[in-house]
Amino acid sequence: MRPDILNPLFAETESLKGVGSALLKPLKKRQLTRLKDLLFYLPSGQMRRVKSDHINAKDVGATVILTLTAKEYRHPSGRGPFRILAEDPFGGQIQLLWFGNHSSWARKLMPIGETRLVSGKLDIYQEQLQIVHPSEIVPLSEENSIPLEETLYPLSDGLTHRRIGQLVRQAWEKSPDLPEWIEPSLLKKHQWPSWREAVERIHQHPDDRAAKLRIGYDEIFANQLALKLIRAANRRKRGFPLKGDGHLRDALNLPFQPTGAQRRSLAEIEGDMQQASPMLRLLQGDVGSGKTWVALHSLLIAAEAGYQGALLAPTEILARQHFETLSQQLAGLPVNIALLTGRDKGKLRESTLMGLADGSIHLLVGTHAIFQEKVNYKNLGLAIIDEQHRFGVAQRMMLAEKAIHTPHLLVMTATPIPRSLMLTAHGEMDVSRLDEMPPGRQPVETRVISSRKIPEIIASLGRHIAEGGQSYWVCPAVGEADIEEDFSPNAIAAAEQRFSLLQQHFGKKVGLVHGKMKPAEKDKVMDDFAAGKIAVLVATTVIEVGVNVPNATLMIIDQAERFGLAQLHQLRGRVGRGGGRSICLLLRSEELTSVARERLALIRECNDGFRLAEEDLRLRGSGEILGTKQSGESHFQIASPEDLSELLPIANDDARLLVDRDGGLSGERGQAARIALYLFERDAGVSFLRSG
Ligand code: ADP
Ligand code: MG
User: Fold this and answer.
1) What is the pLDDT of residue 252?
2) pLDDT single digits (tens) 278-312
3) In this predicted structure, what is the pLDDT of residue 489?
4) How far is CA 533 from CA 280, 524, 530, 679, in A?
5) Which fold has domain 45-152?
């Protein structure tokens, strides 16, 4: 339950004075639906007005307030702007300009012969001083209505800086003093104001560093605290200590030796699984680093100990692929493995459910379906989540909550997370890293090519498949709003278009797969591709994670600039899986921003996922690295990446200390910290508080 003291901050924006239906829409668009949203809506800057008694060319570029008298209207016959010729008290001349249909309104504001205060940005054009669209025109008596300083906000249609400023002010006046959750010595050291004062200051003086850091700190602290609470709750849980005797692992007959990193990670996992409190561990390993080997061995530890293991994949395709790989590798072993996806119905599903309940199925592979209420395990000892980067933090918290009560949990991700973000993204987990590639991998050769060259590319694609090669051709989602890229109509349209173009050249050798297809159709196409019946697979990002077809050595990515670096790296990882040389062609559009250019150059030069992630962070900011685009959830709203590197170590230590000292958050500071959790909507953490 949210503490009562926060109620005013969670009140609807609608309750503020002057918010009618016209304002609601743009406010909603900016997600300013509650008072706290307004308070945390950070200004983009500040405008200072220069008051001057006469027009002065040295003020060009500044926002001025001038006393002007209208002399003459000029209304061109064509499409030109409406102009008012005006004079200052000393006879200095200026033009005021309005584009569009604003002349009658402008005439009303400035009748000929009358004197007004006019404010706007002073410009010069063809040696004429001018103000385009003055923001203020008021009678001399209303001088005070034009503020000398004005806070600026990111706007959308229907909002003005001043309107937002007024709403923020109202929200602030209604906001309570909150008990202090920051350690007093820390406040003193940084000279940070109280929460309420910080909020006020940041809106009055957007460059007030101490105020900004204070609130940024609050946000990070709440996040870290929630993660520490989950971690502490996990430590208190009683799980099953699982000790395998190795008989199943020894019976495996794999065609390769594990890398040192694979052995080390498995040893860490094995150590965790022997503990009474459940494992909560992240296995981080670049594409192709061999996470499946680690998963298989971990699952076998559970089976050796007489427990069941489950592997959760993000998509149907991946679940099936894992199932097939693992089934092959387990052939001849006394281990029963089954597949369960949302698509399985009827008798087969029934018998799988029975096998899970009576323990005759030892290992289960599947999609989300495997953690539904109706699925009962006899004794689930280990749950593995693969390619976790499709889950947001909130989703993971829920999964963790479910899983914490029972099995050991291993999360595997190929998304290389920069070290600086590891703690905020995965602070509740221990981490193992596969920082070594299996031997003999050749890096994928990456080239950036203009999409004007598509005819030539199709020609060389023709040679590639004539030699028995296979290739992917990936099309992006179009437009920012396509969160579920695989299902975006635009992405599908783009893929379908490419598909029919390539079909004209290669006929039946071309296949198409995207998220909107029926699962059975998708599987058929993927199977045909894996079996070599299809040579060119046109796809949306549905193939991004995990799909493994070693004979495919050519990856073509359409409009590569539309993908994130991490995503491009993932896609590139689909090739280079066999012994031979692999190539990745990044098709770029004609006009590129300099950042886009830099990003494509980076991916061309660099094969190291971790470095790419660090650079992507530098170029684009933290949100996209953390997969927030996919989950639609923003990680930090206030703290910028730079603030983060400064504040995170402090906030993290502080949160840990607090949880160590007062794990129930029941002391005075603990109670205050609870408020911070709710205020920053990290209250998932509250459900993990130690009771009593
Ligand atoms: P990812 O980490 O991307 O899930 P996979 O587990 O799919 O990687 O492994 C990629 C490929 O490398 C697979 O074909 C797998 O059999 C192979 N592989 C894994 N470990 C090794 C190893 N130690 N030596 C050689 N090949 C390996
Ligand atoms: Mg994998």
Assistant:
1) 96
2) 898 999 988 888 999 999 999 999 999 999 999 99
3) 52
4) 42, 11, 8, 56
5) OB fold (Dihydrolipoamide Acetyltransferase, E2P) (2.40.50)
pLDDT at 620 over 70: no
How far does residue 347's CA lie from ligand 1's centre (Å)? 34
pLDDT at 84 over 90: yes
- Residue 528's pLDDT band, with cuts at 50, 70 and 90, is very high
Q: Mean pLDDT: which of 18-22, 479-483, 501-505 is highest?
A: 501-505
Cα–Cα distances (Å) from 44 to 142, 150, 154, 344, 386, in that order, read 27, 11, 6, 51, 39
Q: Of 101-110, 126-135, 408-417, which one has max mean pLDDT?
A: 126-135
Q: For CATH 2.40.50.140, list the domain ranges present in the chain.
A: 45-152
When the pLDDT of each residue in the chain is averaged and rounded to a whole number, the result is 87
pLDDT band at residue 389 using 50, 70 and 90 as cut-offs: low
Are 651 and 642 spatial neighbours (Cβ–Cβ below 8 Å)? no
State the Cα–Cα distance between residues 136 and 153, nearest whole angstrom.
18
**What superfamily does domain 445-606 belong to in CATH?**
P-loop containing nucleotide triphosphate hydrolases (3.40.50.300)
Q: What percent of the chain has pLDDT over 90?
A: 57
Determine the residue of 292, 322, 577 to mutate for testing ligand 1's pocket, defined as the one with the most ligand atoms within 8 A of the Cβ atom: 292
Q: What values do phi and psi take at 633, rounded to 5?
A: -125, 130
* Domain span(s) for CATH 3.40.50.300 in the chain: 247-434, 445-606
pLDDT of residue 481: 36
546 CA distance to ligand 2 middle (Å): 4
For residue 181, pLDDT over 70 is answered with yes
Count the Cβ atoms, other than its own, within 10 Å of residue 545. 25
For the entire predicted model, the pTM comes to: 0.70
Q: Nearest CA to 647 among 638, 660, 659?
A: 638
Burial 316-338 (b: 16+ CB within 10 A, else e): bbbbbbbbeebeebbeebebebb
> Does any ligand 1 atom lie closer than 6 A to the CB of residue 414?
yes
Q: What pLDDT shows up at residue 565?
A: 82
Q: What tokens appear for 642 in the block?
A: 């730079």
Q: Which residue puts its alpha carbon closest to atom 4 of ligand 1? A: 291
In the block, tokens 């509250």 appear at: 686
- Partners of 311 in beta bridges: 365, 384
Ligand 1 atom 20: residue of nearest CA: 290
b vs e for 19-56, b when ≥16 Cβ sit within 10 Å of the residue's Cβ? beeebbebbeebebebbbbbbbbbbeeebebeebeebb
Residue 485 confidence (pLDDT): 40
Which amino acid, 495? A
Q: How many angstroms separate the alpha carbon of residue 425 from the centre of ligand 2?
A: 20
Residue nearest to atom 26 of ligand 1 (CA): 438
- Cα 336 to Cα 303: distance, rounded to the nearest angstrom: 10
Encode burial over 226-241: b for 16+ CB neighbours within 10 A, e otherwise: bbbbbbbbbeeeebbe
- Average of per-residue pLDDT across 591-599: 84
**Digit-coded pLDDT (tens) for 213-263:** 999 999 999 999 988 888 888 788 778 899 999 999 999 999 999 999 999
Q: With the CA atoms of 669, 672, 677 and 683 taken in that order, what torsion angle do they form, in degrees rounded to the nearest 10?
A: 100
- Substitution candidate for ligand 1 out of 287, 293, 294, 298 with most atoms within 8 A of CB: 293
Give residue 343 CA to ligand 2 midpoint distance, Å: 22
Task: Report which protein residue has its CA nearest ligand 1's atom 14.
Answer: 577
Closest residue (by CA) to atom 15 of ligand 1? 290
Please count the residues of the chain: 692
User: Does residue 297 have its Cβ closer than 6 Å to ligand 1?
Assistant: no
Please give the CATH superfamily to which domain 247-434 belongs: P-loop containing nucleotide triphosphate hydrolases (3.40.50.300)
